[in-house]
User: Which sequence fits this backbone?
């Protein structure tokens, strides 16, 4: 008798790196904020407000990352390597294929 076929895990859905970063920030902040004892008169933030702040922090982090020297150099290299089709003259290619 054949062994039952092993069930394969469902394909993992690709996660957006921006959302992943915001999620990691949220988990770390929430662990610090909600697990630490606080004074009776000190109110802890609403989790939804904290999540919104984490997305803003992730956005700021990504913006700052694009301003680093390393990122600027990578963008410059990519721009130099990119082919701009509006600047390419293909008239010679088409002229040689025209029958006389």
Assistant:
């Amino acid at each position: 008798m054949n062994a039952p076929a092993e069930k394969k895990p469902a394909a993992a859905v690709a996660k957006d790196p921006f959302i992943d970063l915001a999620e990691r920030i949220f988990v770390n902040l929430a662990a610090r904020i909600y697990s630490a004892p606080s004074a009776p008169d000190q109110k802890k933030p609403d989790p939804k407000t904290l999540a919104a702040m984490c997305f803003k922090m992730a956005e700021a982090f990504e913006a700052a990352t694009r301003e680093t020297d390393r990122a600027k150099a990578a963008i410059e290299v990519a721009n130099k390597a990119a082919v701009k089709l509006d600047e390419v003259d293909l008239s010679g290619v088409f002229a040689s294929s025209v029958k006389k």
